[in-house]
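_Backbone structure tokens_
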Amino acid sequence: MSAAAERNRRPPAQRLAGKRVTVVGLGRFGGGLGVTRWLCGQGARVTVSDKAAADKLEQSIAALAGLDVALHLGSHDERDFLGADLLVVNPAVPKDLPLLAAAEKAGIPRTTEMNLFLQRCIAPVVAITGTVGKSTTTAMIGAVLAARLATHVGGNIGRSLLGELDRIAGDHVVVLEISSFQLDDLPLVGVGPHVGVVTNLAPNHLDRHGTMAAYAEAKKNIFRFQSPGDVLILNAACEATMSWRDEAPSRVEFFDPAGPPFDLSIPGTHNQANAQAAWAAARQFGVDRPAAAEALRSFPGLPHRLQFVSLTRGVRYYDDSKCTTPEGATVAIEAFEPRKAVVIVGGYDKGAAFDRLGAALARRAKAVVAIGATRDKIIAAVEAARHGPLPRVIAAGTFAEAVSAANAQARAGDVVLLSPACASYDMFTNYEQRGETFVNLVAGL
């Protein structure tokens, strides 16, 4: 059966007009905004429940002004769960929340924003996941496909597409970044993408998934519900996902991260790997390599993803605040000449190991400025791997102190790189705020 025929034979999605729907988790940076707006537009009777108090959610609440929504903030009320016809749960909400278990026992169905979209999307979907590079790969695929097809890009990259469903036609294409948290809930609807792309797999989010095996199982949902007419694209250099070709019900292709390079404006071998993955996905839609190369040549990169900030006193400053894994920071460091980068690392502790990052910093960095909850762990990993006077290792107490210390270590021809390897929640609301703070501090040097 073709992928299009498979989409057409799905049972019709639930009609939501008049239904009592509780959105669990509005989020401090708007994770529940898109689905709340859309549910209101469908005529649902919407309640938003969030444990955070109103003063912590000011921006999100302001964005809902004018909508007929009941806001129950500061704690969860059992009645919002057991009295609902449907729960729409933000992926960041812990799976062991007791009220979710109580609702399941009571037979209350639950879903997610991503699942609501996938159930209703009539266009072929390209879904991208992985530990490192999924946002940039998603944007690259969108840029390449947009040169010849009506293309919609969203998902975990930061944009809800629910509001665009009425404008998405069957001959369009949808490109979605999907996180492990979102994939964890995909079995609730059993819908797979026409093209699934896995950039790589390395330890991440172990504070949520518990084990690497559980993290990998969540990622595998990207292919579990595909059909034989669909495609799974894997990284030929990633041993952790190599065996997935034997588990996938779809056709499997591989991209070579070291394949013939593309002419890119953004640095690093990792971005070449992202481009190879993007080309592998785009050719499933008939895009030839010259057309892909042209689109990739003008691709500017994404904010906070190894983004050039400024050239000051001969020092180049790069914002890689989106980097929240040790593997991602290792890749970023390797984009620059050895002993030229002063690297700011550290942040919220997700339970990842820093041995490989410490070795990479010890081998390539000119100096390391460590901050946040993981500061001491990262310093220990660098010291364990260091041989000789470099890199100099500095412990900073605040983010501003870290930027100042990094600037003091850099000379003309050097690079100051913010690539934290950790989430931002110990100091900032999100990685965007962390990156913007870095840019502002650099501007004041």
Q: What stands out?
A: The CA atoms of residues 366 and 389 lie 10 Å apart.
